[in-house]
Structures
1.
Amino acid sequence: MATEEDLEKFRKEGHVAFVVGYTGETGKELVKALSATKPFTRVVLIGRRKSSVTDKLGEGFEGFIKVDHDYVMRTAELARASDCKRFLHVSSTGSDKNSCLLYPQTKGQVEEELKDLQFEHLSIFRPGFLICDREESRIGEKIAKCLCMPCFCCCGKYSAVSTEILAHAMVRRACHPNGKVETIDNKTIHYIAE
């Protein structure tokens, strides 16, 4: 686990970070965590034009693939071409390139393609259900949260994680990577953030 001494050493090395998706719930928490700890000399925020995720839902499968696969991979390819050493990606529990369902299949495909880019360090975060106070209303997510809340209470850190905890784990891994390629499950996200 990274210590305060490790963080200070990292700061002195003068690293620059970029955050893609900084207007999303996890992105907002990541920017807060980076602002609080200040591990980087500069943080570049990259976002799309103002666009509601619900607008993307209207685009169906193609819109989902464009956002969750194409944008992610193009960003990663540009980062790699710019000699980015460490790349952190938020995927999802259950990601599987061989799944018959579009969501886990797409997430799994992205994970495999990221590995092929050969970053010096690649951290893939697989959070469970993300707990946050969304500004936008997602009725399906609200229903799922109500139905699953008893499970979250019983399984705790194994099934859900707050975007704040996820962001803290990401900052720690950005400053102190663990191996060349690392897939970080929900339980480990909690452990890293502690």
2.
Amino acid sequence: MGNRQQSLNPGEGKASPTMTKNLLKNPCGEGNMESWEVTENGGDSWHVEDMPGASGHAFHDAAVTKYFATSYALCLKKQVVDLLAEGFPADYLDAQPPVTVED
């Protein structure tokens, strides 16, 4: 989840840094809601469940033991990722390359 592949900088023809890690902190809820800002917490709110939980489905990565679950009403969370701190060069980011976000 969130692995980045090498892509070209359209402005300069240079390759971006290869990102092989998930840039999100606490992506699966191992730390409960740590690193996430809850912006909507409707119904019975956000919570973290153990796999396989109510879904009854195992995840393809056995290292993932928890997941975020929501309620019957709107629940939203967000996280800011500092791309400079993650190793992306400023000149690459200044070219405004396409960014893909998956959750």
